[in-house]
Design goal:
about 90 residues, 3 helices, about 75% helix, flat
């Protein structure tokens, strides 16, 4: 429990930094950056899977929630990217 405050601090700082960075990106670049976000979410899935394997029930539940959210983000990102790339294909 002694490590909760530093971990919470890192989480809050990461959330604030992510919000600030995303808000500075021009709207034209949001969709092309989706592929990069998918790679980051893939890394998140790996970290979440490691969390699920711990003996602590709280960490296991939070890891499971992280796996579900990150997987949803990856799949949604690929669907959006696929749809965006379909807009550039020539129609017969």
């Amino acid at each position: 429990m002694d490590s909760f405050l530093p971990i919470l601090t890192i989480f809050v700082l990461a959330a604030f930094l992510g919000l600030e960075l995303i808000s500075k990106v021009p709207p034209l670049l949001h969709t092309p950056l989706m592929s990069g976000a998918n790679a980051i979410s893939g890394i998140t899935i790996v970290g979440a899977l490691i969390s699920v394997a711990t003996p602590s029930p709280l960490t296991t539940v939070l890891g499971l929630v992280a796996v579900v959210f990150a997987t949803t983000n990856v799949v949604g990102g690929f669907l959006v990217t696929h749809r965006m790339l379909g807009m550039f294909k020539k129609k017969d």
